[in-house]
Specification:
The protein has 22 helices and nine strands. With 440 residues, the protein is of the alpha/beta class. The protein has two domains: 196 residues, Alpha Horseshoe (Serine Threonine Protein Phosphatase 5, Tetratricopeptide repeat), CATH 1.25.40; 188 residues, Vaccinia Virus protein VP39 (Rossmann fold), CATH 3.40.50. Strands 1, 2, 3, 4, 5, 6, 7, 8 and 9 form a nine-stranded mixed β-sheet that branches. Helix 5 runs antiparallel to helix 6 and helix 8 runs antiparallel to helix 9.
């Protein structure tokens, strides 16, 4: 799974799903549960129509404003901020909106490029609750988007004066404010100030849901981590899941699963050796499952993002899907798999020694490991020292020599390592390595 998007703005508006709160699992008939099921099933138009119909019937059905705000937030996740804004503008104009609805409307307006209108809405929200840290966070984000860095800094600094308690909510609000301040000072080329705020964000949020460790590494303020934090990846892709397929394929010209499949089918013995009991590591919404399904007798998927897992389950290509870290999943299945697929997954891992060790035990004799990663030219100090480095998009890149050394240490024969462009980014192809290895 991959994205050229940064962490979606306004995390405080709707927290990411957790392992305990998994979209698509609920059997409820309420409008939000139905919305999540439609999103998981990939019925984009159905989800949009359902949200708009529910909003239209809100008075007759007595739906609360919080529900309409949540449905609008789902539309934002679907990449439809203008529709979300339209849904919320009517109750706001009628004076029926609470602060939460105003926050979601402001986010929709800002993402639609209507920054001044977003600020007007947030000013109204501040009249309702002028000491709300959530309102101040949203004001700061909107002002930063409108290139008003000075006022954005003042808003985030005020959050730190308001959210002084020990509750989980206030701790998270402070982490968000420090992280945002780090982003602003980075843009203003005040690297020392930026680093101090990113470090404090890390302290307030040890799980590092925002990726402060990656930002510190970018600033050369600390060594790059061995992998992106699980909380960061989960938050990133929970917000990206509803529009993942369309954005990756249409906007970024993503060809990862097809290129991995072509490389696998070109390897002697792959097609004749199946069908396989397979595992898709970082299964995302199921694009790799669709590509490799003809070669699979069974196919398990694992992904950190519960929302991605819901979409993979709905795709129909998987025997089972688990939400969680891939290493414990495969470590619990010794010699269970004849095929492991990892398409654009190891770009969030960096150090691949634990993964190769786990696959050495999880794959059956002569089992296949087919994966991709972004390609490092090996020139940086990190690449020369470790065999991997963090790229400019906060994803890891690996050298071919590093992958070859891992294969040798963990009992894999290399059938092929080819250079391909799996996707475009900023209108440029991203050089990637497509690797086909087989356990001896």
């Amino acid at each position: 799974m991959s994205s050229d998007d940064a962490l979606p703005p306004g995390l405080t508006a709707n927290p990411p799903f957790t392992d305990e709160s998994r979209p698509g699992d609920t059997e409820g008939d309420d409008p939000l549960s139905k919305m999540e099921r439609l999103i998981a099933e990939g019925d984009r138009e159905g989800a949009i129509a359902h949200a708009e119909a529910t909003a239209s019937a809100r008075r007759e059905e007595g739906w609360p404003g919080g529900l309409i705000a949540s449905l609008a937030h789902c539309l934002i996740d679907l990449g439809e901020p203008a529709r979300a804004a339209t849904m919320l503008e009517e109750p706001v104009q009628c004076g029926e909106a609470n602060a939460r609805m105003l926050l979601v409307l402001a986010r929709a307006l800002s993402l639609a490029g209507r920054h001044q209108e977003a600020l007007d809405v947030l000013n109204e929200a501040s009249f309702l609750d002028g000491r709300s840290a959530d309102v101040l966070l949203a004001l700061g984000a909107a002002r930063f988007a409108a290139e008003d860095a000075a006022r954005a800094i003042a808003d985030f600094e005020r959050v730190l004066r308001v959210a002084t308690g020990d509750s989980a909510r206030e701790t998270d609000q402070r982490a968000e404010a420090h992280f945002r301040l780090g982003e602003i000072w980075t843009q203003l080329d005040e690297r020392g100030r930026a680093a101090r705020h990113f470090r404090t964000a890390q302290t307030e949020d040890p799980a590092d849901r925002r990726g402060a460790a990656l930002r510190l590494a970018e600033l050369d303020a600390q060594a790059a981590p061995a992998r992106a934090s699980a909380a960061y990846v989960r938050a990133l892709f929970d917000g990206y899941a509803p529009r993942y397929d369309g954005h990756m394929v249409e906007a970024l010209h993503y060809r990862g699963p097809e290129l991995l499949l072509a490389a696998a089918e070109a390897a002697e013995g792959f097609s004749s050796g199946g069908p396989y009991d397979a595992v898709d590591l970082g299964c995302g919404t199921g694009l790799s499952g669709k590509a490799f399904a003809p070669h699979c007798r069974s196919l398990a998927g694992v992904d950190l993002s519960p929302r991605m897992c819901a979409a993979a389950e709905a795709s129909g290509f998987y025997t089972r899907v688990a939400a969680g870290d891939l290493l414990p999943f495969i470590e619990a299945a010794p010699q269970c798999f004849g095929l492991a697929i990892a398409c654009d997954t190891v770009i969030y891992l960096g150090d691949l020694e634990p993964l190769f060790g786990a696959l050495e035990a999880a794959l059956q004799p002569k089992g296949w490991f087919i994966f991709s990663t972004e390609k490092s030219d090996g020139l940086s100090g990190d690449a020369q020292k470790h065999g991997f480095e963090m790229g400019p998009s906060r994803r890891f890149r690996h050298t071919e020599a590093y992958l070859a050394s891992l294969a040798g240490r963990h009992g894999f024969d290399i059938h092929s390592i080819g250079t391909e462009a799996l996707r475009m980014e900023k209108r440029q192809p991203v050089p990637s390595l497509v690797c086909v290895m087989r356990k001896t």
